Amino acid sequence: MSYVFTIDLRELNDQQLVVLRELGCEVHVPSHRLDDEQYVRLQWLLKYRERLELDRPRTFSEKLQWLKLRYRDGRMPGLVDKLAVREFVAGRVGAEHLNTLYASANEPRELDRASLPDELMLKCTHGSGWNVAIMDRSPASWAAAVERVERWLTINYYDLRREWVYRTIPPRVVVERLLHAPGPGLVDYKLFCFNGRARVIQVDLDRHGAHRRNLYDERWRRIPCELRYPGGYDVPRPATLPSMLALAEALALGFPFVRVDLYEIDGHVLFGELTFFPGNGFEAFAPASHDRELGDMLELPTGGGASVG
Hints:
Blueprint: H1 14-23, H2 36-48, H3 60-70, E1 71-73, H4 76-80, H5 85-93, E2 101-105, E3 120-124, E4 131-134, H6 139-153, H7 157-161, E5 173-176, E6 188-194, E7 197-205, E8 212-217, E9 226-227, H8 241-252, E10 257-265, E11 268-275, E12 285-286, H9 289-297, E13 306-308
Parallel strand pairs: 1-13
Antiparallel strand pairs: 2-5, 3-4, 3-5, 6-7, 6-10, 7-8, 9-12, 10-11
Helix pairs in contact: 3-9
């Protein structure tokens, strides 16, 4: 038997919610017909089978959705732009914390492969995760990477996840040094900064294999929580932790929340990127109580949102 009914995504009532929970649902809605709030509410409903609380958000995930929908700072698009952010980082913490930039272009075919090193990283400026590592000079590797980048350049990342900060970023490609680290490999240090203070550090391990993720507080005490991925082996406290904390907080100053991604290479801290809505605000905590604990750390701007120049 099929059921067809209309749902007001802004004011989902309890009766509709009961029906959805009991029956489950298949929802077929062309996303372009929904505004950003309707789209986010629908995604929340499908994932959690409950209303998204925006008037009194309490959890970290709810507050990320609030920030995504109701907070606007005109600086933010330039800070998630993988090329434009370099000027901001250099001005706040110094260019010595930037990875080496070999080249940038509107299209990868504009790049002169002969002038570039054997190993490199291609990144699109206007999205997240659109990176290709090249480890040799073979024409096949270069051609495959160019094909992938060209495909990404045709996509507006905003259309995929409705994160407004990506909507107007010009699509370009940058070429950076490919980072290496001894031992178990390159470790990502992702510092969650709440109103300018680094409180939680996410450490991702073996991202291209059995992905593991640990959480630590700012004193490097393990937080007994999983965030999307299971926990891995304990990571020694990095000697550069004080530098990481200071650098992240300098970059986070003036924002309600931002995640600052860093690397440590031979005792030197390098900037990775800034992320305002980690996991689009939909990554699950286990136990779920930690979602509320991180939510308590995040003080939202007062006055019903912001629009900063």
